[in-house]
Structure formats: C-alpha cells, structure tokens
What does this fold into?
Amino acid sequence: MKYVDTWDLDSIFPGGTNSEDLKSKLTEVKEAIEEYQKLLSKSELQGGESSVNTLKTILKEKESIGKGLGQARTFVQMWHDAYMDDEHASVVMGQIMELYSDVQKLSNSFTKKLVAISDNDWQQLLEDNELKEVSFVLNEIREEGKRLLSEEEERLIADLDKDGLSAWSSLYDTTVSIMTIPFTDEEGKTTDLSVGQAMNRMYADPDPEVRKQIFENWEAAWTKYAPIFADTLNHLDGYRITLQKAHQYKDHLEEPLEYNRMSKETLDAMWSAVSNNKQPFTDFLQHKAGLLGMEKLGWQDVDAPVTLGDEEPTRFTYDEACDFVIENFESFGPKLTDFAKHALENRWVEAEDRPNKRPGGYCTSLPEFEESRIFMTFTGSPSDTSTLAHELGHAFHSHVMKDLPSLNRGYAMNVAETASTFAETIIGNATVENAKSKEEKAALLGSKLEGATAMFLNIHARFLFEDAFYKERAQGIVSEKRLNELMVEAQKEAYGDSLASYHPHFWCSKLHFFIDSVPFYNFPYTFGYLFSLGVYAEYLKHPEGFEDKYIALLKDTGSMKVEDLAQKHLGVDLTKEEFWAEGIELMAKDVEEFIRLTNEIEK
It folds into this structure.
C-alpha cells in the first residue's frame, strides 16, 4: 500500500504557527484559565456532598484547560521540529509557556486545597464512586503537595520557570537548530548536513571512512558550541537542584524516582543486573569489530551495519516498512494491528528524510483529539522500521487508555517505554525470522543487538554521567573539561572499556540531558526495555488471548506503582535482581546465535 510520509498538520490548526484557529484556541484557553481561577478562589473543600460536587467540577475544568493547552503546545512543537527555520514557532511557544505558567500557579493552589483537607474529610470525599476510581492519583497529588512552599513562593517559581528551567531547555533547541556538520564526498564536494542528517549518516553509513569523517566533524561542531551547552546544562540542572532542595527532596534521584513511581531498590536492582551481565554485549561489540576488520570499534562504529558475504544490507522503502509492521503486528493481535493501520493511513507519522528537521524520534499527544502523532526520519534501515514500530507502540498505549478517567491516563516514562519496546520486539523478531539466508539473519540479529547494547551500555553510561554530574553540580559549576572527563569515564565503565574511541561531548549532543520537563530522562528506557522483555516472555508462554491481558496491564500503568503493577500482572518482584537478569539473558542468547552464525559464514 502507498503511505504518505509527512504529517497532516492542517487537520490540527490550518496555517501553521500563524493559524487563526491556533490564535483563537489560545484566547479560549486564556479565558478558561481566568474562569478557573475564579472557581478555585471561591471553592471550599471539606467533607460532604457539596464538596464532592465542587471537586468534580474543579477536576473537569482543569482537564479541559489541560487538553486545550496541550493541543496547542503539541502542534507548535510538531511544527517547529518538522520546519526548524520557522522563527515564529518560538514566539508562539513563548505565549503558550506563559499560559502554562498561569496554569501551574493554579495547580499549586488546587493542590494546596487538597492538602488542607483533614484526613477524615478526605476519606469521606473518596467514598464517592467517581473519585474513588481516581483515588490513587488524587492521593499522589495530595502527598506530593505536602512538599509545596507557600502559594506566593510557588507562584514566583512558576513565573521564574519561564525564563529559567524552560528557557535553558529552549536555548539548547535553538542552538542545535542552527548547527551544521560538514561532509565532503569522494568527488570533493562539501555539503552542510543538519544535526539530524549527520547523526543518521554517522551511525548508519556502511563506509567506515564516511562514519569516521562525520564523527570527527561532529565532535568538532559540538566542541565549538560546547561553552554554550556547558552553561546551559549547569544552569538548567543547577536550577533544578535548587528547586529540589526547596521542596525537601533528599537527593537528586528522589524526584525522578517519585515521578516514575518506582523505588530506589528497583533502580539499584536493575543497574546491578546490567553491570553483572554485560559481558555478552561487550563480546558482541568485540566480535562485530572483527567482522568489520577492526581491532576495536570506534564510537561511531557501534551501530554500523554489518555486511556478510555478498549479502546487501536489508533496506525498506517507507511503504514496505509500514506494510511490514502491520503484517507482523497481526501475529500478535487484531487491536494493535487495526490501530497501526489507522495511524499510518491517516498521516499520523512525520517520516520524510529532508533537511531542516530536528534529529531523533518521538510520539506525542493531541489531547483534544485523543490521538497521537509520531516524529522520526526514515532512511530505509531495519533500525528505522523498528523505530516506527516503537513509536506506534507508544501511540497504542495511549489509545487503549482512552476510556479511562483522564487522571488515570497519566503513566510515567518508565512504563511508557514498555509498550513501545514490546512493539519494537515484535518487529525485531519478525525481521530475523523472515530472513532469507544466514547472512541476512545475522545482519538483522546484529541490528537487534544494537538496540540491546544501547539499553544496557549506552544508557547506563548516560545514567552514570548524569548521576556523577548532579553530585558535582551540587558543589558548584562543572567546567566543560570536567563534563568531558565525566562523560568518557561513564562510557568506559558502561562499555567495559571495549571501544577504541569515545564521545567526550556526548553530554551536549544528546538532547535528553536538556529536557526540562523530566529529570533523569534516561534510565526509564532501560527499565521499559527490560520490563517489556518480561511481558514478552509471558506472551511467548501463553500467546492465546494475550493481547487482552497486555491491554489490561497497559491500562493500569497510570494508577499503580510499578512494583505493584509487576506483581499484579506478572507475579514478579522488581526489587530483586533476578527479574532483570532473566530479561538480559533473553538478549544474551541472541548474542550467542549472532556469533555462531557469523562464524559459520566466515568459514
């Protein structure tokens, strides 16, 4: 089938960031915020039926504003990421962030009202059936609200966020949007690549000299801008540390753990399992180096395609990738399949490979439509096909929660990565199973294992770096030189010193360190990856009717701590290293198969 590889943005707000409909939406939201403020100011919440009805009204208005503002913000972000030369996008985003600041102030006022309710009156309120259904989240809001400062102080923080946390993050995006990476081809012609184009080619080009040239130019470009990024990172996280102290967090990990609804014991068990079981993956990298005729892989070679014999690397057109994803989702269940068809046929995906797009990929929400949209750049590799499945998994997760109360749809990032990785696993396994030869199967296994090494080694390096950085930043500004040192130290520890070269400026080339909304944006990926392997293992044991069980698990992700979620749906204890090690062992078997196959081919 033929699919369009660009977003249908006009179906959201026709006319881009100058859309009259968008302006009207922002005016509508502003007026709603003013009415919401009046409602809050005159509302008293105690026990009794009148307070129950008042609380329901407040929640309804809060939800409506959140959806309207979220719709506008998502659209502007989508437009900016697809067309990074639109300077007006940052202007409109500034207007939206002003409204978010107003909403944050009112959210704090609302939370303060919940905290002020006596425990006895609170329990009476939660006896109402509608409120009981969302009691987990309401209790969570109330408990977190006990950290808040006075309303006046919280209002000031919300005002400062616009030119503080959010502004530093925005500065990063703006700086990256004007960066270019030069590349000189065999004929001597030099082209300036966008960051996104350079990244895709640096990691995926089959020619090691091309990868090496781009990596050297890549490092040089990030080195040039590093003083700006060092300032940005120091002030962004310095700001966050100040807020954490004011809100009585004991250390820099307590907030991200609370956000992800998980315990420190679970995090420690996961990283301990990774540290104790990474040998197969460093073996994989060493074996891959031999296949590529190298003693050790350089940083830019870790994801390089492996060509064995006369086998050409597997390539997909975008249409072929879409059909392949749909076909293999069918082996799992009709609901996931029908959803993927709908998303692809209705232009929910921006995948065109062109200049002036930001790098990376993501799935985002259009809350008023109760739909998702996907951003990526499709270049034809099996990895890109897996990325498409990954982001469709995210979208499916949101889709199956549409019938839940709005408060119960707010799942954290770690479990968000479960659905995406589960979908990616289906496609990764399918590409291997559909291989037409040993050579193709080995190449596809290699691609699949690149994902595993990213989760176990690359993201572990990110966590080690960020953990070390936060500890030093609490004592003062961390220099660019020291940031480079911390990054290389983290990479060497995570990769077992198995690479020939490292990426000192990875801390500034990786967007995730500069996202303002969530601290420690990285470890949830490894959590979701390993947790999804546990879910997938259950599917392999009992495939009949598993899609409905899987959907039931996804529906609970917004209203449970992850330890309770795992116990209820999988019967496992996440605070024990054994669970995580079992997931790693599944991928270790792929390493064994990859090495066995490639040795047979090389004979």
User: Anything to note?
Assistant: The longest strand covers residues 180-184. Strands lie at 180-184, 190-194, 349-350, 362-366, 371-375. DSSP finds 24 helices and five strands in the chain.
